[in-house]
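Review this:
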Amino acid sequence: MSRVAITRVGTDVVAAFATAMEQAGCVGLIQPGQRVLVKPNWNACAVAGSTKLAVVLAACRWAQAQGAGEVLVGEGPVPVGRERIDSYLAELGALAALAEIGVGFVLFDEAEHVLFRDTPDLPPEIGIARLALECDVLINLPMLKVHSCCLTTLCVKNLKGCLRPVDKMAFHRLGLLPAVVALNRLIPSQINVIDALEAMAGDHNSGRLVPLGLLIASRDRVAADAVGSALIGLPSGKVPLLKLAAAAGLGEHCVEALEIVGEALVPQRLELPQDALKRHYPNLDIQDEGACSACRAALMDGLFTAGAERQVTQIALGAHSTVAAGALVLGNCLSSYFPHRAHVPGCPPVGKAVARALAGKE
């Protein structure tokens, strides 16, 4: 039976992290001299939607206290360019804080990758950060957030950050959920901790922060995600990604089958992106049959960015959608409509360009 710890965090995050590790049965997984990789969710889109630096530092300090010979933090943020990544890390205060405790940072985009070819459910070729594959222990450390495509984006999806930038978009075009599951079969994840000090509701980049004051820890990545999802109102069987991951033998997705220790699991309903859109735009008509998750994500990004300035009432995306007269057309799948309709090209289109078009500025 998989064990999941729900640990209350007070003013001492380092002590709380150590308690979570003890409750989850992770003490002893790191042997003296081993190389440990801490993989947060630092996506360079917004500091508020990132794993808290205090939790990352606590994970590093705990690994050092366990006798790790080297501790590194590694991440491959959303492809936004090195200048934006540097600005984001500076805003986060990450590099100086890590250096102060003797921990290095590795940007996976610029590191060595191991190539995998012709793997079922994956693009013909992908590159995975060598460090993620060859470290002795990987501490998987996402933030608790909702997600427009996966409902929640937690431990299982967090490993997508170990890919080359070009592969991340290929996952969307191929089929995001089965690709993420296949990726998890290639990358070990011995320790899994969800930063639930605050949860992000409504949108995974710019949503509302809900204080929870918790850490969720397990040696089973799927079990940790199942508890995290249940905590924000998504019970067993409601998260397709976790059902697929469990079917692939990656862990247990039924909360009822887990040993939960520490704090009680008390669910509270957090607003999902789809719910937030219905609240903000009750009369918006979206036709998206055949659209991939990348195009859908670009639309969500554009809608949340456009806000009250939105002037469009009908949107079409995806190769098989119905394009009504006057609809804004998104993505190259419907390029045959471009000469005669307002449109945003791209595969996928850029979220900011979608926002400008929604506001009638393009």
Remarks:
- The chain has two domains: 3-262, 281-358.
- The longest helix spans residues 293-306.
